[in-house]
């Protein structure tokens, strides 16, 4: 802070101290905005026309129609929910050995390298892109979605689990090791009790994420409520679309509430 | 840690029998739920296609490799669009989310009874709908193109930025607010000199973090018609031009890696 001259008063120091850098950043930002907005080709007539469409979507949201397509909606919801449960269970089970292998303090270097590359591969792409590939290989339907979500779960869970294991209190593992325990016993008695509460918490969190994702991968053919929503939108059936959106929001809210409560209870 | 006597010897167990039973029952319930879900999910699965998958995968790979690099020159335009969707969308999202965050924070909200629940509702609604679904809605409303993508990204970002920002606002040091108020500052001056400087680093960090996520999300918005590189992906997929799809995937991967690097650098500089 500058010493304030009595007459000039005090002025706040700027966020970026170097004036050249500061004005350079502002200038760069201005130039970018001009460049970006000038390539933005907006058909304003279409946007104006869309306002009435927007009203119809909103109207659909407030007068949701659960009945006329209830069979499709229930099937989509059933697919989404079962996909969420199975993929979370399978994904978490697979991510445990990979997470163990990706923790530098218990795994030898070659195993560590392999497991870390599996994690990187799983995290590199969006769920949607993985779903496109799995749909091409396994055909349309929730099975491809199940594989997609399981695959995405592995990267997420294994990475966080490995970081957890790397952060444990070494003293406890050391104490178990000092009793002459084997590798398995060290894992089971020295490490597992330390990471188990976090592992369960993370699985519940992932369950929540998997449901959200299951609501979109249907757009590329991988089953679930997203497919039903996509069909409803392309038929301009906004009442059904509104009903589906409301259901997605409701399930997400219930899942989030339940998972945060269970997490508090477990930890 | 219960200790029981067993044949005259002290026996230590980690849990009481009752907790042990409860835990076993929990696992059993999970297993039953899993089996049921598996059966319902696979009612309509055609296992013939699943068995066929390795052959399909090999076929796909043979078509996808080598990548058709000549396609790259037609991707620069869509890539620029994608970056614009993410950046302008994040900007718009920040502009919309900041007032919502101030309304949602317990210590800055003008009305805890009416406006705070409303702001929290906006945050929750925005977060529970994926950006691809926002894009699907907006394409139906204002037509396909970049604008739909930008608004979709912005609407999705409100929840994320709003939630993290209002938590940051609630965690500020109230004594600084008190000190500024004691000088006789107006509401606007309190905001400007006591609240804002405390949350500015968090604000910048959250914005950059969301920009990084938005780059990822904007790469696929084209699948529903909202512009960017996803549009090319859609057309290449429709033509089963897998060699082009490979090029697109590589470009997406490179873009995401660069954005991650940029956001890590900026965040390290701020914090």
From TrEMBL, chain A:
Which keywords appear in this protein's UniProt record, sorted alphabetically?
A: Cell membrane, Membrane, Transmembrane, Transmembrane helix, Transport
Cellular component, GO annotation: plasma membrane
Listed transmembrane segments: 20-40, 81-103, 128-152, 240-258
Q: Topologically, how does it sit relative to the membrane?
A: Multi-pass membrane protein
Which parts of the sequence belong to the ABC transmembrane type-1 domain?
Answer: 77-259
Name the domain of life: Bacteria
Q: Name one Pfam family in it.
A: BPD_transp_1
Signal peptide region: none
The cellular location(s) given in this protein's UniProt record come to: Cell membrane
Molecular function as annotated in GO: ABC-type phosphonate transporter activity
Instruction: Specify where it is mainly localized.
Output: membrane
Q: Does the keyword Cell membrane apply?
A: yes
Which SUPFAM superfamilies did the record assign? MetI-like (SSF161098)
PANTHER family to which the protein is assigned, alphabetical? ABC TRANSPORT SYSTEM PERMEASE PROTEIN P69, PHOSPHONATES TRANSPORT SYSTEM PERMEASE PROTEIN
Family as reported in the entry's similarity comment: Belongs to the binding-protein-dependent transport system permease family.
Query: What's the name of the protein?
Result: Phosphonate ABC transporter permease
Q: Give the species this sequence originates from.
A: Methyloceanibacter stevinii
Automatic annotation (TrEMBL), chain B:
Topology relative to the membrane:
Multi-pass membrane protein
Q: Where would one find coiled-coil regions in this protein?
A: none
TM region(s), chain numbering? 21-41, 83-105, 112-129, 135-155, 240-258
Recorded hits in PROSITE patterns, A to Z, give: ABC_TM1
UniProt cross-references to PANTHER family, sorted A to Z? ABC TRANSPORT SYSTEM PERMEASE PROTEIN P69 (PTHR30043:SF1), PHOSPHONATES TRANSPORT SYSTEM PERMEASE PROTEIN (PTHR30043)
Concerning Gene3D superfamilies, the annotation shows: MetI-like
| Record localization | Cell membrane
* CDD domains linked to this entry: TM_PBP2
Protein name (Swiss-Prot/TrEMBL) = Phosphonate ABC transporter permease
On whether Transmembrane helix is a keyword of this UniProt record, the answer is yes
**Source organism superkingdom:** Bacteria
For this UniProt record, give its keywords in alphabetical order, as a comma-separated list: Cell membrane, Membrane, Transmembrane, Transmembrane helix, Transport
